[in-house]
Records
---
Amino acid sequence: MEKMIFRRLFLGIFIMIIASLLSFVLLYLAPGNPAENILRQRTGEDPSYEEIELFLQQKDLDVPLLTQTSEWLYMALRFDFGESINTSEPVMDEFITRFKATLQLTLITLAFSIPLAFFIGVRSAANNGGTFDHVSRFFTLLAMSIPEFWLGLMLMIVFSKTLNWLPSFGYGSYLNLIMPVATLVVGYTATLSRVIRSSMLENLSQDFITTAKGNGLSQHVILIKYALRNSLGPIVTAIGSQFGHLLAGVVVVETVFSWPGIGKFLIDAVYLRDFPVIQGFVLLIAMMFVVINLITDILYTYIDPRIRYERR
Amino acid sequence: MKKYTMNKRILALAMVLVLVMATLSGCGLSGKNSNESVASASSQKILRIAAAFDFKSAMEGKTLVYENLVKSDMAGNFSGWLAEKYDVSDDGLTYTFHLKKGVKFHDGSEFNAETAKISLEYAQNNDANLKKSVNSIEVIDESTLKVVLGTYLASFLNTLSSTSAPMICAADLEPAGDPKGKLSGYIGTGAFYFDEATYEKGVKAELTRFDDYWGGASKLDGVEWLYVADPTAMVVALESDEVDMIGIAEHHSSIPYVQIAELKSKGYTVETDETGRYQVIEYNCSKAPFDDVNVRMALNLAVDRELMVKTLFEDMTKASKVITAPWFVLGPDKVDENYYKFDQNRAKKMLDDAGWIDSDGDGIRDKNGEKLELKLVVPQGEANADTVSVYLQSELQKIGAKIDVLTLESSAASDMKKAGDYNMYIHHSGNMPSIPGGIGIGDKYYSTNKDWAYSFHSAELDGMIDAAFTEPNTDSRNNKIDTLWTYLHAQAPCMPLYSVLKLVACNPRVTGYKVGSNMFDMSNVRLLDMDMSK
């Protein structure tokens, strides 16, 4: 187990650096440069060549690509990702401030969507072909099909504009959380509950379930102790993946509700070609994915002893 | 066994609750709504402004805190601001500024010639034009400053009145007093001061009334800058009384034009102000068909702008009849406003005369085997450009021109423009009142401009621009500029479309709104009042 952890962490470092460098090189080769984009955003006008040159000079961006890359790598090894070209703030500070907001949204969304998805998925599988199954399948499909921006705006129009119950934007209060979380919970619960249902159905058709039934075990025990336990592999993978995606930022929800997370900030940085932010954020997001995948793999060994034996 | 299972369930539930609570408390959440502090403080006149950008990222916000030596009105007439008055030498190279006395910075220190010098030196280090043109900055006495230019710079006062040249406090620089340092503390002379402690990145910033403001303290107690990213959410925030004002903090209108009528009908005040910024279609004049002035002119005549404004914008704004706002001080006020009057028959005749005829009867004109098929590049985010493009497609089809609309991310579009890979390019003109429409030295129609290398250029035009913008005598310069505009309109370098509006909406409790001197300027917020009984 320890060997596996070290091996994965070691590989993870390479993945993080490659992801970060790749995003930098691709954007460097893409049209546009940070000076032009940032100056245009600030002034609303096309900057002159002299203004662009002065900006590049001031921000040390007039050096060759290789020099920039090697300097960045040297700094990144010390966990220093430099300053944002746009805000002139340290990239790490920008990340930490926004990551707090993203983490809140992620954990609370998952805290609601996981139990809800388990309830819907397990009950739907147990009631395969029944009324609950049909109704839940209809609604989960509907929930998966609703675009987040539409749902967010609808919630805002109903609960902020019409009823005046909830704030339409902002950060820092429980009330600010309700609509962004609700918007996310709908989609994530639907996706996860369908994974749980299909995984459960696959296991419920296995021979060991028939044996358990033959032995006279109760429906509850068969569902929870036998079927669900054996279905956990793909479910944990799905949760891990959702966790990672939420942590990487939910741009649409962050934009609609002005939530100060990392997603919207990163997308803006891409438009502005704010290279230090893009590189730093991609590296840190890749690091989160590596850690989450590692935790998922470790959980596998506890959920399914066969995987542990195979690795041994 | 049952008890064990129950314990596990309770444990799982407890873990979920702990997770939620830890997240909420660990990240500093409270039960108080972040917008509530203002909503509940009814006795205080705090103006809540929704802004599409974070306070520190938006140049508009800086106009609440910093002020300049001079100020320009919307048309481009300059007057003293922190400089009570200024003198310009006959050759236009020496400017003497006589500074206001009794002006204080937010930290209590005095504004004087020494701090003005540091401010201009800081601006010089950060502005390409000033860096190139300013020779020396000299303190004559405590309230007199002399600036000597090496070369005449027609836009000098314009730059001094912009956010490129704010009057800053020496202590605001890091290291203190070093003009090459970093501006850090937002210590200006404006009617409101910014307290860093109230700033929440990507959330809000609070500004408080500066009681020692030289022009008299504002009637407002403060301003709250609230970040609202989405335009629809901004309108909802106004209607649900979470903010008092929207649209003022963006130079590009953040309020959808279609919302104006509805907001007005609900009793909100909606101000629609022209700032002289026009949306235009720029032609690639370096290759066919737009290397022929007749084709350019034909297209300019073929579009019914009045109908476009009525259909797309419900007559909220005005159709552009000339290249840039004629009411600018240096604008084309002598050009006949019927120069590009809608006349599709005349447009068709001009295309016929230019050799573009529909030889195969497919509805699209052709010449020497080439179809009149034109690539219109639309940078993503250009306001209203999607609907305008579709309208143009339909109008130009009537005269036998086919328009292929290509919408691209703004950087990709800009690169296509620089490479000349376009026939038509939609954009908005600049908003420098003193030198509008890209006609200054080095601007869009000047041949050295690399950004617009494929726009209309000619040696004749360069000569006219040089002559006009190196002429320090006002009357003589105005005459030369009038000649220049007449020549440029005859060349039809672009298709003017409509005037881009600055839209500001506020709830009825806000009174006294007056648009600033340009679409960035928010300094007039100090003149607002609020009737808290409403």
---
Amino acid sequence: MIELNAIHRAYRSDEVETTALADIDLSVQAGEFVAIMGPSGCGKSTLLNILGTIDRPTSGTYLFEGEDIAKAPEAQLAKLRRDRLGFVFQSFNLIDELTIAENVALALAYRSMPAREKRERVDAAMDRVGIAHRRNHHPHQLSGGQQQRAAIARAIVGEPKLILADEPTGNLDTENGAQVMDILTRLNADGATIVMVTHSPAHADIARRTVHMLDGRILSAVRRAA
Amino acid sequence: MPRLAWIALYRSLTRDKLYAALTIGGLAVGIATFLVLALYVRFETSYERWIPRSDRIYRVDTAVQFPGSPFNGAYPATMAGLFEMMREDFPGLIGTRIRGGDRAIGERGGAVLRGGVATTEDVAQVDPSFFDVFALPMVQGAGAGALADPTAALLSRSAARRYFGSADPIGQTITVSMDAPANYHVVGVFEDLPKNSELHLAILIPIPKTPPPSEWTWYKWGTASVATFLRFETPEAARAFAAKLPPFIDRRAKVDFGPGASRWLSQPLVPIADTHLKPMGSESASRQLMVATLGTIGLLTLLIGIVNYVNLATARAGLRAREVALRKVVGASRAALIGQFLGEAIAAVAIAALLGLMLAEVGLPLVNAAGGTSLAMPYGWALPLLAGVTLVVGLAGGFYPALVLSRFPAATVLASARAPGGGNAGARLREALVVLQFGLAIAFLIGTVVMAVQMRHLRAADLGFRREGLITIASLADPKIGQDQARTMLRALQALPGVQSVGTANIAPGGEGTSNIDIVEQPGPPGTGPMLRLVSVGPGFFDTYRPRLLAGRLFDNAHAADDSSDWKRWNLGRNVILNRQALATLGFRTPEEAIGKTVGNPRPRTIIGVIDELRFFSARTADTGSYYMYTPNAVYLHIGAVRFTGDPRAMLDKVEESWRRIIPQVPFRGDTADHRLADLYREDERATRLVGIGTGLAVLIGCVGLWGLAAFSTARRVKEIGIRKALGASASDVVRLLVGQFLRPVLLANLLAWPLAWFAARTWLAGFGDRIALSPLYFLGASLIATAIAVVTVLGQSLRASRAAPAWALRHE
């Protein structure tokens, strides 16, 4: 499904050039659950952002379902994100001014489909993560675990092929973290491809493959039997 | 303010220079606009207040109220003999007449003759008691009592320099011509009159004790040829005198008006300070309206600047929440914080006020050029005003941000990663303020469009004659010119190469000449009947103006009854020509129906022709029905008109050259008809330009504010934009979102602007007899322009925000 070849990402500030990713090769098959681990600043999130097309590599190729999108125009990437990707962030990234239901519906806002169908899909997604009873609340009225479940509902409402999760349990306590991992496992079992950045070895173990990173490079990939 | 507070202010201004430029710059432009327009209002309302004891001086007007007369209204003059009669009946009355030298009445000044050649001068004949009323400051000699000598003259400082250079003017002789040339000796010099005066006095000479031969209206009630001023020590005395006037008029005006003359004629007393802005004759109160409009625009532009300041200040207030929280933690009281932010606001407004003053000084020459004014900034007036504005705006503008900022709860602010932004209420207030700002700006814009279109309409209006290729010579009507001299002049004009025809009439385009009304008596009680303007025309008039003939024929020397030159034969029945409106006034349905009919009882007038309107007067005065009489042997009291081909400038020079050769004793006064007509609307054109400038600046400040708000709001929404983009929003989705957010208040602003502008435009247009219809297109057009400007203003930032990489945006706090 995903094929990264010689991906390089450098940030330039005034004088310093920092290499965030160097020579990354990675492939992810459809239906996989991949965990990315590594210390802070090793490039995990940058890699995830590039996978999610919300950041661009400085050089290298990125094949998404066989198509090179490393240099694709922004409009095409927006369409790709809209139709095939779902994001879950560590800090949830819910919009305070909108209710939970509206936040979830935001992922469908840029698609043309009948309003009724949108409503049904939003309800279904919220049901699936057990947040439907909080639909009319604002994010700051919810606990962290509830917020993250809402964020997952938003990520899956568009029925994406690939879910990208950036430390989805990082801001949660153990119990809430476990609940979120349960949801992700279920989604993977239902056929979604998941790439997750995590600091938690326990949560990484749930994934079928773990990629270890250090200083912008991939050290090793551990594959477990399903 | 303590030192640290100054540092905080300095840093908050320099940290974000763009923000400082927007808030302070916007307010400075608002203050500059307000200053300049306040200066204009101050100038317009300061007329005659410079005269010592001006609050005791009253002008006597002549107000006519005939049922159905188009000439109804108050005129700023009286019959020449009125003051004599008043003094006979009310001994001890203090007052003076000014004959000539007052351009409000018409260009009735005289001339100074040197070497047989006359030059126009602001000569005024006044009563010896002039200085009892107008205590003009003297440079040399004494004013009071000087004019009891019938050959004495007083000169203004600049007139003295003009005629005698550096020599001592006292005792010199000067030849002045009013009714006829005469020699006067200079007995004194008075200071030049300031610009804020309707009086134009360069030479004062005594008014004749008996009427000059040409002045048959000297004691004719209902005429208005001299300005009469009275002095009363108290307003009560003035009121008491005014109460005695109706019986006086009934007693004295019986000769011309019959019994009960005060029903139709009154002589109201107007305080001299009110005279400049008072409407004249049948004109509407357009000057007052204009001064009020420009004053309002100044105030509202200042308001827009203040709104801008408040808006950006509250929007930015949240960014200083952490500073506020920390100050609270170290023990600042709420009052101390409010004091700090109010102090900051006042300091910022003071900077804006200084900048505004500079802008106003820089802009004044431009405004003077556009508005035809000669405004200057008096600092004794401007600085206290600015200090007041600074305090008021500083307190008003700083109060809300100070309140919001000082209310932030310290703990929450310090604990949270995000800065509070005044919440939804703050956002709603800002949106309401943007609605107010743009509402006013759009209303101004609509007003400017309507004024510009109306002015264009007036310039292009069909006047019934071609205004190009036409020169009028007003000085031909001077009574000092004899019949033979006038005829010689007309023949010389006819002989000039390029001249097609030469005609004369007692009126000319631009409103010059004499206005006569005539009652066309109907069978029934005497004195009733429709009123028409009586126009007396000489040979060549119709050839020169070429009106459309609707029925019948024009005047012709072959018909003896066409000639009305000898008024003693009028009772025998004369032929007249009507215009279209007179047709309706007299009750004829078609032009053909009127031909051959005779109207008027003691003086039968037979209608031989009907022409379409020739519009010589301002569209501000209602058009009147007119009839034309042919007076080929009275051309010397007529204004000349020359129809020509070729360059107008060259033709005017040639006409003036002939004039100097044939009639050197009277100064030449002539101009192209299109100049004279443009003069009618000069004040309106100026006002339109001033309103246009005010509007431009108001829109500019509005845009600056919108730009600042968009910058602020976009910066705050960076993260949201990142989320939306991660969820698949395209760049155009984001632009649409951001532009839409700002479009809503701008569209709402139209709801505020339209009724406001409609009401104002309708009031202004009501002052014109010939006016454009208030089309919805002006409203839609102005709104479209404002909306387009607003979109362009926020588009740049929206585009930039939409292009930012979402990964960066998501990290943004």
